[in-house]
Design a protein that fits this description.
alpha+beta; 4-stranded mixed β-sheet; 3 helices; single chain
Length: about 130
Amino acid sequence: MDHTLRLYKKQRLCSPTAIEALFARSPECHSALAYPLRAVWRHGSERRSDAPLAFVIVVPKRRLRHAVDRVLMRRRVRESFRLNHARYALPPGSRTDIAFVYVASCTEPYAAVERAMTKLLSKVHPTDTPDQ
């Protein structure tokens, strides 16, 4: 079993202050859109976790009214991140916080979510190319 495909608790962005800093309109925060996802990231963040990449997934109730749909899309986004984040390695010693915001107003198929995820992960570190 490949352990790089696992998601660990330390990769989860839980701190309210770190999440607020991520969504603050500051020059160190970057954003990109690949429908149906929007990514907001911040390099060089200070947090307790030693994970190089910490993430949070946001599926607004305003977009998807039913909890079942929000949970479904959160699972699809998490699975596409789990399968693709190892292909875009971070430089040693760097730390990045990233938020994935679901922007579609209806549920999207997994293929569309995965396509958007690979585009967004390549934008977070544009100099890195995915391993084939």
